[in-house]
Design goal:
Layout: E1 7-11, H1 15-27, E2 31-36, H2 39-49, E3 53-57, H3 65-75, E4 80-84, H4 88-100, E5 104-107, H5 121-131, H6 146-156, E6 170-176, H7 180-187, E7 197-203, H8 209-220, E8 224-227, E9 238-241, E10 247-250, E11 256-259, H9 271-281, E12 286-290, H10 299-307, E13 311-315, H11 325-331, E14 337-339, H12 344-353
Parallel strand pairs: 1-2, 1-3, 3-4, 4-5, 6-7, 6-12, 7-9, 8-9, 12-13, 13-14
Antiparallel strand pairs: 10-11
């Protein structure tokens, strides 16, 4: 029995890019059922053609990619792969789209009109086909909270006296891939400022986009969130996100190390790399959390975490965009708790407030 072709609607304001993307997807075995020149055109054609997947340009006239995605996810939730530029503005818009419910994204290799799109042809086709198997989930994004900006700005402008950071009592490690930015937007804003734990996050993402993700999460969260740097120390109420293109590790001295070793499971950063280093070098209570994502990255690391007495959570299939990484943890019997994403923040807080020798979730 032959596999059914994935039906795709291509949306881009450039006729050249529409043609290139159509040719790439057709050559990759997909069926391009239509093309749209702007957001409004896309909404009309999505309703008429009912595609399996939409590729959506971030920067368009009339109705941009983010506005189109919001309307589409409200009216007719479909798997969407954003096609973004590598600019800072493009990265920020892409992160907002992923938080809203886009399945994945592809960065154009060179500007709005990329003459070398053939270099990412395989990646585009693979992401579109993977998106067709995903569950689109419209997520109401937490609005920016001005009071948090003010509070953090005041703290940053305060006295510069040298203070030695208080070591965290506990460590929380979160790993995610496809659908992860949206899940992180459901978790980080619900963690309290006084969280008595450091948080380390690995989200499968290329360089440039993890910084935008960290900045976005920091703007809507009470805890501090930023992209990790080599030599960072762990602090309570601080979340560090692994920079795209580098593995993040916990070194023997308790500081963050970054590595450009080859990808693991085809990804860099990899969740397993971080978890295995935590299992080797962290000597206090620890919680591992595996969220939505394709593949099995994180399963080996969760097993190592269990061996040192750590607690583990896997996201429930009911809220996963792709039930792959959590499924691998569950099927190996490594999950102490299996929770929908909206229940995970409370479980993290319970873990951090438990007695020193407890690891309950």
């Amino acid at each position: 029995m032959t596999e059914r072709q994935v039906r795709v609607l291509v949306v881009d304001d450039s006729a050249f890019m529409r043609r290139i993307i159509t040719d790439i997807l057709t050559a990759g075995g997909c069926e391009v059922v239509g093309a749209a020149r702007d957001g409004q055109d896309a909404l009309n054609k999505a309703a008429a053609l009912r595609p399996d997947v939409v590729t959506l340009d971030v920067e368009m006239p009339v109705l941009d990619g983010y506005g189109t995605l919001r309307e589409l996810m409200t009216r007719q939730p479909l798997p969407v792969v954003m096609v973004s530029s590598l600019t800072k503005a493009g990265a920020e818009a892409t992160v907002r789209a992923l938080a809203l419910g886009a399945i994945d994204f592809l960065a154009k290799p060179s500007g709005a009109i990329s003459l070398n799109m053939h270099t990412v042809a395989g990646e585009l086709t693979a992401k579109v086909k993977a998106a067709a198997t995903a569950t689109p989930r419209f997520r109401r994004v937490v609005a920016d909270l001005p009071e948090l900006h003010r509070e953090k700005a005041v703290a940053a402008a305060g006295p510069l006296a040298e203070t030695k950071p208080v070591p965290p009592r506990r460590l929380v490690v979160i790993g995610c891939s496809t659908g992860g930015p949206g899940a992180l937007h459901q978790i980080m804003p619900h963690l309290p400022k006084e969280l008595d734990a450091a948080v380390l996050v690995v989200q499968h993402m290329p360089a440039g986009f993890t910084r935008s993700l960290a900045t976005r999460l920091d703007s809507i969260s009470a805890i501090r969130v930023r992209e990790a740097q080599a030599g960072d120390t762990l602090e309570p109420g601080l979340a560090l996100i692994a920079p795209g293109g580098q593995h993040m590790l916990l070194a023997e001295d308790g500081r963050i190390a970054l590595s450009e070793e080859p990808p693991l499971h085809g990804v860099r950063p990899a969740v397993d790399k971080l978890l295995l280093s935590v299992a080797a070098n962290w000597h206090s209570p620890c919680l591992g959390v595996i969220l939505t994502g394709m593949g099995h990255d994180g399963a080996r690391g969760m097993a190592a975490l269990k061996k040192i007495g750590g607690a583990t959570i896997a996201e429930d299939a009911s809220t996963c965009v792709v039930y792959g990484m959590p499924k691998a943890v569950v099927e190996l019997g490594l999950a102490d708790a299996i929770l929908p994403v909206h229940e995970i923040p409370a479980a993290i807080v319970r873990h951090t407030r438990a007695k020193q020798d407890e690891v309950r979730v």
